[in-house]
Structure formats: structure tokens, C-alpha cells
Design a protein that fits this description.
The chain is α/β, with parallel strands linked by helices. It is built from 45 helices and 16 strands. It is 59% helix and 10% strand.
Length: 999
């Protein structure tokens, strides 16, 4: 244990205190008339008496100023009656000075000034900034000998204890407005003051209509006709109070109530409220992280939830820990991640709706919900009308909800405010005070409640509006935050615990709070916690056992804002040091990132933010990942350029930013390209060891190239840069990029070279780990399929057939859906090139079945296009048209057409078959233009050949037809694509012999 001096100490604090200044009247003259030694002893005795009196009343003598002194009440120890104690001490000090016997020592007369206000203290208490001590000093200068002058600010706080007479108003140096000077006199009181109300759970006021609406919805739910209700309103308007009151009214009925708390700074934790619920259900979070199906199923069954094992498997696939490095390699082109996301939402909804008893589901603070939680709420809303469930969400903002009924809370009516004030006062409040409170709070219940408590503690005696305004002004109250700060101040020493807890967050554990309050015993912490509970500052958490939470987020913010920035940072730093030192951080990664960021630990903040983003990506939660990446970018930017980890963190950030941008905006989006370009600009300056660790950045840079020409040049760079690395899998994937692009660019020999060299590096075990990351399919399947197409175009038919057979065989052996549909696509394209319509249709149907089973939308689009094309080409006109058009439309919507040239060829053939040769020619001409500019040249010769055929059917000039065929031959021969060249030559020969051939 560290010494007390090693504990976190505040560098300063904002606090309302009362200052007392006293001064000896005519001290210089007394010194001249007295012996110096005797005068010194008398002054010392006065200061000792003053210090004893001040200390007796809970204050402390801050400074001895020769012939006077400066005292403070309410600091360092807080006190609810600091102002009262200061006035009491000033009167006693006068009596003591007046009662001094002249023979014993020099007789003194005193002037005393007392004022209350907000000040800022240094931790040592020797530096003070604020108006209270200045005003107290000015007031004592205005006092008559042997008298006390008290400021308005103190009078308003103590008028129920003392009688005051107004002396005059004076213009004091440094103060713009005249200051009222009050003289106090002690008052005899025969009756004790009422204690502040401890009734924190008084019945709700003014929400009868809203409660009735919730009750009606619940009755419908009991009949199996549930609903979703959104309770909307600003902070402090009473959303949670309304829902809590309603839930409390159901305690005597047979039902289940579940509360899901959305949290600020947890927007990047996908399904966080639901996962927290599962953690409470299984009691040990490691069960979810380890993927323990048996224990999860048992916990679900014990809670009365009878679900299929497949539901538990899905949730465990979502919650289980996975290597964060894999997140940067995930590709999103086939949308399988979205299918997994939907599956998880369905599983969560099943768990929440499978119980036989009526269920109340409450989602609190949905304005802070992550995207997946919003999807879950929407899904529950769609299911509710057929189930005995009522879903209630509270939020500060509206959002579009197809299945929700909105209850928008406005301020309380005047009658409800009067009722609320009366319930707090417990007697008749001063006439007109309730209306004054209504004007101040604009009907906000929390504000009204705090104002009522504020005035009740000060017991205003009069009925004047000016008096009530004066109380607020002198109390420094201009907002709800000021009132909450005053409530915190009233908790005395427990306020420090609340301040430390506020730095942790709205919810905090007693263990972490005790750790932060180093040097303070657990017993003392428990006492502080009980004090905060009794005062309604905090409450026990309904979400986590052994934890507490601030009763209202505004109270937490008030406690947090009462700390100086330097002290906040020091507490954040202590939390950050704990999190950094833990093997498994005790707080969610998103919260840990924020704590480290506030502590100025930018490197650790960036790492925690990356961890949160990686976890979200692995769960197909890209919006949530983006929230963490934005924080990570800020923290990396804040690092010194000389920081040893800056480059590594920046590269990791770029990899995830590129992946998320591709998912959210499209793989060809400008933002994705820009991110990967920045990554490569930095990465190519690094050593080969660094480059191999960040190969996903190379892959993303290659994959997001704006066209095939650029992609091909990048593929050559990628292959060249990776030749020197030792990791075989990385070199294989560089060749993977090389062969994929080279085929489209019509560089078939380079394509086949990449396949040959790459497949010598292929390792089946590594493939299992990496096929989901690089293209979503197995590299060997891809290489064999690509080589089958290249061999065909090079007119090596035997090698082509052998390669495609191996491709299909190996794909089936992997039993990996992405690899199987990839192989079927190659086989389908090969059959389409050879116009084997029946094979195209059979392969397409097989591919469609697999794609639908695994939610592979892009593969579904392709399968329907090819099947529709095959049907149309072999059947009477019209059959297959709708299927082709539907597949084409879906592909365009998904933006996943990486074979535009061939698909445009098919589209043109469909149009021609439907008797639209002019539209067909326009489609082909567009494909030629796009192919030439983008660099997708492998099918360009065939597009020119089809163009010539369509021109002939449209009776175009023979010279134009011949020109197209000549270009087709030239392009094919330039690519050494003998098979394509031969087809074009046969068509040209047919043209010259008046028998144009297209097959």
C-alpha cells in the first residue's frame, strides 16, 4: 500500500464556502501606547482564541494577517450549515473580545465581515480564487467597532437562524452594484427545524394520462397483442421515473421485467445491453467468451427460456473471443457478414420472446444505443403484435419506428408542480412559491424537485418574489446543474466519493471506487456509499451485482463538472494505469479507450479503441466499429511523431478504417480508396517485416483500385514487394491478387505464372484460417478456377477442363460455402463462354441453392442472371427474361459486378433475343467503352465480335462490321488468346462469305 502522500490529491476544487474576516480596530495606535512584548502576547492570544472558536464551529483559520485573520467555513471539510456556523462564530468572537479583562492584556475591539460564495481552492488550501473572501474583507472594513457585517449571500442562507437588520447599502471597491450591509442578532427558537426530506420514491405527479396509456398497452399484451412504445423527452423530464412507476405497479402480477441499459460511450459495443443481460444470466462472462454451449443452454433453461441449441450457438459465435488481428482481413463483398448479423438479431429476439409468461422489456437511454441494439428493438417491435410482450424504450430523440407508439413527455402542468412541491414541503409552502418554481423549471420534474428541496432547506420567511430570486442568486443557482451540485455538497465528506465515482462513469463498482480512494478504508467508503444512497444521489445497479449507478446522469455530470480539469485527468490516469496493467481490462474496451484518452494516455487509448473496433468488425457491426475508429484517429493524431508506436498504430487504424469504409460506403468508395492510399504511402517506407504484418493494407489498396488498369499495376507492385518476405501465406496471397487481376487485364501468361508459383506455397491448414479473410474463398479454388478460364482463352482446352474439375473437387473438399460458390461461378462462366446452356443452368441452380442457404446475396444475383440467360437462349422468347432482369438489378444494387464485360455481353444477347437489337448494340458499345477505359480487356475481343453481329442485323455498313472484327482479332492476338482470335476470324470469314457466324 502506498503512503497517504502517494494518494490522488485534488489540485483544486470548486466549492461554495463562507469567508470570515476579522480585524483589530486601531491596532497601530494600540501598539504605540503599549509595550511591544505585551502587545505581541495579546495579539497572539486573540488569534489563538479566534482559531479555537472558528474550529469549534467547523471552520479553520486560513491566515493570520498581523492584526487580523481570514477564516473559511465549508472547507476543507464540507458542511451543510457552513454559513450558519460562520455567523455563530463571528458573534462568539465579538463576545470573547469584549469580555477580555484590560488588566490581563491589551483590550481589543474587532470588526468582522462574513460573505458566502463560490471559490476555487488549491489542494493545499493556500491559493483561493473567488468573490467570497474579497467581499468579506470589504465588509469588515465597513463595520463599526465591535460589530459584524454580513453579506446578502449569507443572510439568505441563515435567516431562519438569525434576525437581521439592514444597516445600509454601500458602494464597495471592485463591485459594480451597491452591496447591502446586514447586522446579525441571535434568535431564540423553541422548535426544532425539520430535517430534509429523505423520501426519494414519492409517487409520480402529473403523468396519469401516460401511465394509463402504458397500462392499456400492458392489458393488450396480456391478451397476446403486444406493442412497442417509445417514451421521448429531454433529460430530466421524467422518462425513467414514468417507466419505473409503471413497472412498480406490476409487481403483484405474474410477469417478467427485464431492463436493458444503454450507456454513453458504449455506442461502439454491439448489442452491449443484451450481452450484459446474458452475462447476468450465466453469472460468469467467461462462459460467453469461451463459447460454452452447455452452460449457456442450462442458464437459459433455468430462467424459463426453452430455445433451440442453434440459437445458443449463434449467440456464442457472436460473443466468443476471437483473434483481433483477423478483423483487418475480413472482406465484405458477399455480404455474409450481414447475414450473420441478421441471424444474431433473430437469436437475441428468440431468447427474449420465448417465455410463456407476459414480459416487459425496458430499453433505457436508447439515444446512446448501438446500431445492433436498435435493430433488436425494431425486430422485437415487429414480433410484439403476436406475443404477450410490451417493449418500452426511453430516449431523448425521436427516430423512425415502423411498429412503435410514441409518448412524448412535456413539462408538468402547474397543478402537478404544486402537488410535487407540497409533497416535498410536507406543510403548506409559502404562497406563490410553487408558481415561482414552475416559472423557473418550465415544468421539468427533476428541476422542480431540486428547487423545492433547495428552498425548503433555506425556509424563506417572506412571500416576495425578490426574496426567492435572491436566494437563487446568492446560492449561485442558475441551472439544474447548480442545484444538483448543491445537493452533492450537502452530502459532506461523501461528496469526494461521488466525485471519484463520476469519473468512472454513471455506473461504478465499489471495488474500483475503493481502489481510486487509496488510503481510505473500505469501511469509510461503505459509509460514504450509504450516505449517497440515503440522499438519492446514487442507487444500486439493476444491471450488475455489486455495482451502483448515479440516480440520474445529470447528477453524475454535476459531480464530474465540480472537479477541476487537472484533477479529473489525474483520476482518469489512475483508472487508465489500472486498465493498462490488467491482463483482461475490467471495463469494456470502449470505456477503457475513453478513460485513457481523458488521462492523456493517447497510445493506450488508441489501442483500446482499436480493440473495440476489431471486436465490432468480427461481429459484423461496422457502424459500431466506426465510432471507435473515430476516437482512435483522434488519439493517434495526438501522439508525437517520434512516438515509437505511432506508425504501427496508424497502420492498424488505416486497415480497419479501409475495411469499415468498404462495408459502409462500398468497396469502390472514394473514402475507402483514400484510406488505403494513405496506408500504402506510409507502409512502403517500412521494412519488409512491418510490411508483411500489414499485408491486409496491401490487399485493400489493390482491391479498391478504381479500375483494372490501376489494379493490375498495383498487383505487380504487391507481388514484387512480397517476394522477399518469409511468410508463405503472405506470398501466396500476393500471387492471389496477381492472378485475379491479370486475367481481367488479359495478361493470361502472367496470370498462369502467378497461379503456378502461388499454389506451390499453398498450405491447407493456413487456408482454413485465411480463406474467410482474403476474398472470402479458398486461394487454391480461386487459382484453379482462374487458370481454367485463362487456359480456355489461350485455346488449351484440355488444361482448362482439368483445372475446372480440380477446382470443383477441391471446393467440395473444403466444405466452405464461399469457396464452393466461387468454384461454381468459375464453372458457370466457363460453360457460358462455350455456350453450353444446359450446363450453365444446372450450375446456376446449384449455386443459387447454396447461396440462399448461406445468405450470399451477390452469388444469388449472379446465379439468377446466368440461369435466366440460359433459359432465354434455349426457350421461346420471353422465358427467363424476368429472372435475368431481377438478378441484374440486384447485382447493380449491391455494386458487386466484377465481370462487367461478360455480363454486358449476356445482357445484349438477352435484348437481341427479345427483338431489341438497337438497345443491344448500345449496351455492347457501352461495355466496350468501359472495358477499354477500365482495363477489363479479357472479353473485349468478344464484345467487338458481338458488336459486328448486331451491326449486321441492323444493316450497318460492311466497313463498320469489318472494323469491329478486325479489332477483335488484334486484341485477342495481343493477349495471345488464340481461342478468342479464332472465333473472331471465323466470323470475319463468314462475313466475307455472306454467312456470319457467332458460335
Amino acid at each position: 500500500m502506498k503512503t497517504l502522500d502517494a494518494r490522488i490529491r485534488f489540485t483544486g476544487e470548486r466549492r461554495q464556502v463562507t469567508a470570515l474576516f476579522y480585524d483589530i480596530v486601531g491596532s497601530t495606535e494600540l501598539l504605540l501606547r503599549s509595550e511591544p512584548e505585551k502587545f505581541f502576547r495579546s495579539v497572539s492570544a486573540l488569534h489563538q482564541n479566534a482559531e479555537a472558536i472558528v474550529k469549534k464551529h467547523g471552520g479553520f483559520l486560513h491566515q493570520r494577517l498581523g492584526d487580523g485573520g481570514c477564516c473559511f467555513f465549508g472547507y476543507p471539510e464540507q458542511s451543510e450549515d457552513a454559513a450558519e456556523s460562520a455567523v455563530q462564530a463571528s458573534l462568539e468572537l465579538l463576545r470573547t473580545a469584549a469580555g477580555t479583562k484590560a488588566k490581563a492584556r491589551t483590550h481589543f475591539r474587532l470588526r468582522i465581515g462574513v460573505a458566502t460564495g463560490l471559490v476555487v481552492f488549491s489542494a493545499e488550501g493556500d491559493e483561493i480564487v473567488g468573490t467570497a473572501p474579497v467581499l468579506a474583507a470589504r465588509l469588515q472594513a465597513e463595520a463599526d467597532p465591535n460589530s459584524v457585517v454580513v453579506a446578502d449571500s449569507t443572510v439568505q442562507l441563515t435567516r431562519h437562524k438569525f434576525d437581521y437588520s439592514l444597516l445600509r447599502e454601500a458602494k464597495l471597491k471592485g463591485f459594480a452594484d451597491p452591496i447591502a450591509l446586514w447586522r446579525p442578532q441571535e434568535r431564540n427558537r423553541s422548535t426544532a427545524e425539520p430535517s430534509p426530506s429523505q423520501e426519494q420514491d414519492r409517487p409520480i405527479r402529473g403523468r396519469e394520462k401516460e401511465l394509463a396509456a402504458l397500462s392499456s398497452a400492458w392489458n393488450s399484451a396480456l391478451d397476446g397483442k403486444g406493442s412497442l412504445i417509445a417514451v421521448i423527452g429531454e433529460a430530466g423530464i421524467g422518462k425513467s421515473r414514468l417507466v419505473g412507476e409503471f413497472a412498480g405497479n406490476l409487481r403483484q402480477t405474474a410477469h417478467e421485467t427485464l431492463v436493458f441499459q444503454c450507456g454513453r460511450r458504449l455506442e461502439s459495443q454491439p448489442l452491449h445491453p443484451f450481452v450484459s443481460f446474458l452475462e447476468r444470466l450465466v453469472a460468469e462472462p467467461s462462459i460467453l467468451k469461451d463459447g460454452d454451449n452447455g452452460t449457456l443452454m442450462q442458464a437459459l433453461q433455468t430462467s424459463g427460456r426453452d430455445v433451440d441449441a442453434a440459437v445458443a450457438d449463434t449467440m456464442l459465435a457472436f460473443t466468443a473471443d476471437r483473434s483481433p488481428a483477423t478483423s483487418r482481413n475480413i472482406r465484405v463483398s458477399d455480404l455474409s457478414g450481414r447475414a450473420f448479423r441478421r441471424k444474431v438479431i433473430e437469436a437475441a429476439a428468440d431468447i427474449l420472446t420465448c417465455k410463456a409468461v407476459p414480459t416487459l422489456l425496458i430499453f433505457e437511454d436508447v439515444h446512446w444505443a448501438d446500431d445492433m441494439t436498435l435493430e433488436l428493438i425494431d425486430r422485437l417491435g415487429s414480433l410484439a403484435p403476436r406475443l404477450p410482450i410490451l417493449i418500452i424504450q426511453t430516449s431523448r430523440i425521436k427516430r423512425s419506428l415502423a411498429f412503435a407508439t410514441e409518448i412524448e413527455l412535456s413539462g408538468l402542468a402547474s397543478a402537478a408542480v404544486r402537488d410535487l412541491v407540497a409533497s416535498i414541503w410536507r406543510e403548506h409552502p409559502p404562497p406563490g412559491l410553487s408558481d415561482f418554481i414552475l416559472d423557473q423549471c418550465d415544468g421539468m420534474p427533476l428541476y422542480a424537485e431540486e428547487l423545492a428541496n433547495f428552498f425548503r432547506a433555506r425556509q424563506p420567511l417572506g412571500k416576495a418574489l425578490s426574496e426567492w430570486k435572491g436566494l437563487l442568486r446568492e446560492g449561485g443557482v442558475t441551472s439544474l446543474n447548480d442545484l444538483l451540485s448543491a445537493r452533492l455538497a450537502a452530502t459532506g465528506p461523501a461528496r469526494r466519493a461521488a466525485q471519484f465515482a463520476s469519473v468512472i462513469g454513471r455506473e461504478f463498482s465499489i471495488l474500483l471506487l475503493t481502489y481510486l480512494l487509496e488510503g481510505v478504508s473500505r469501511q469509510t467508503v461503505d459509509v460514504d456509499i450509504e450516505r449517497l444512497l440515503s440522499q438519492g444521489i446514487i442507487e444500486r445497479s439493476s444491471v450488475a451485482h455489486g455495482s451502483f449507478q448515479f440516480r440520474h446522469v445529470l447528477t453524475q455530470e454535476a459531480a464530474y463538472s465540480s472537479l477541476l480539469k487537472s484533477d479529473r485527468r489525474r483520476i482518469h490516469r489512475r483508472i487508465a494505469d489500472l486498465l493498462i496493467g490488467e491482463r483482461k481490462p475490467s471495463l469494456p474496451a470502449a470505456i477503457a479507450a475513453w478513460q485513457c484518452a481523458e488521462a492523456g494516455r493517447h497510445d493506450a487509448a488508441a489501442r483500446f479503441a482499436l480493440a473495440a473496433a476489431e471486436a465490432s468488425v468480427l461481429r459484423s457491426a461496422m457502424q459500431e466499429a466506426n465510432v471507435s475508429l473515430e476516437l482512435c484517429a483522434e488519439e493517434v493524431h495526438s501522439l508525437s511523431r517520434r512516438h515509437p508506436d505511432r506508425t504501427e498504430l496508424a497502420l492498424s487504424l488505416f486497415e480497419l478504417q479501409g475495411l469499415v469504409a468498404s462495408a459502409l460506403e462500398g468497396e469502390g468508395s472514394e473514402s475507402a480508396r483514400r484510406v488505403y492510399a494513405r496506408a500504402m504511402q506510409l507502409l512502403r517506407k517500412q521494412s519488409s517485416a512491418v510490411r508483411v504484418n500489414h499485408f491486409p493494407a496491401y490487399w485493400g489498396w489493390w482491391f479498391t483500385a478504381p479500375n483494372i488498369l490501376t489494379q493490375q499495376s498495383r498487383a505487380r507492385i504487391l507481388v514484387a514487394d512480397m517476394r522477399v518476405v518469409a511468410d508463405r501465406e503472405t506470398r501466396l496471397q500476393s500471387y492471389h491478387c496477381g492472378w485475379a487481376t491479370s486475367f481481367h487485364a488479359g495478361e493470361h501468361e502472367f496470370c498462369l505464372d502467378c497461379v503456378a508459383e502461388g499454389l506451390t506455397l499453398y498450405d491447407p491448414e493456413s487456408a482454413v484460417r485465411n480463406r474467410a479473410f482474403f476474398g472470402g474463398h479458398d486461394a487454391k479454388v480461386c487459382g484453379l478456377g482462374e487458370s481454367a478460364l485463362s487456359y480456355l482463352l489461350l485455346d488449351e482446352t484440355g488444361a482448362s477442363e482439368s483445372a475446372i474439375e480440380q477446382c470443383l473437387e477441391w471446393a467440395n473438399a473444403t466444405d466452405h460455402a464461399g469457396s464452393m460458390v466461387h468454384a461454381l461461378y468459375y464453372a458457370m462462366v466457363l460453360a457460358r463462354c462455350q455456350s453450353r446452356y444446359d450446363d450453365v443452368h444446372a450450375l446456376g441452380e446449384q449455386m443459387l441453392s447454396l447461396a440462399e442457404r448461406h445468405g450470399l446475396a451477390a452469388s444469388q444475383a449472379r446465379a439468377n442472371m446466368y440461369c435466366g440467360w440460359a433459359e432465354l437462349m434455349t426457350s421461346p422468347a420471353g422465358r427467363g427474361e424476368a429472372r435475368f432482369e431481377a438478378g441484374l438489378l440486384l447485382q447493380q444494387q449491391l455494386g458487386t459486378d466484377d465481370n462487367f464485360s461478360m455480363h454486358s455481353d449476356m445482357h445484349a444477347q438477352v435484348l437481341h433475343r427479345l427483338g431489341k437489337p438497337a438497345e443491344a448494340l448500345a449496351t455492347v458499345q457501352n461495355a466496350i467503352s468501359v472495358g477499354r477505359s477500365s482495363g477489363q480487356w479479357f472479353w473485349l475481343a468478344e464484345l467487338y465480335r458481338l458488336s459486328a453481329k448486331l451491326r449486321r442485323d441492323l444493316n450497318d455498313a460492311p466497313s463498320s462490321i469489318r472494323r469491329d472484327l478486325t479489332r477483335a482479332i488484334q486484341i485477342a492476338e495481343g493477349q495471345k488468346a488464340a481461342w478468342l482470335a479464332e472465333r473472331a476470324k471465323r466470323s470475319l470469314d463468314g462475313l466475307q462469305g455472306n454467312g456470319f457466324r457467332t458460335g
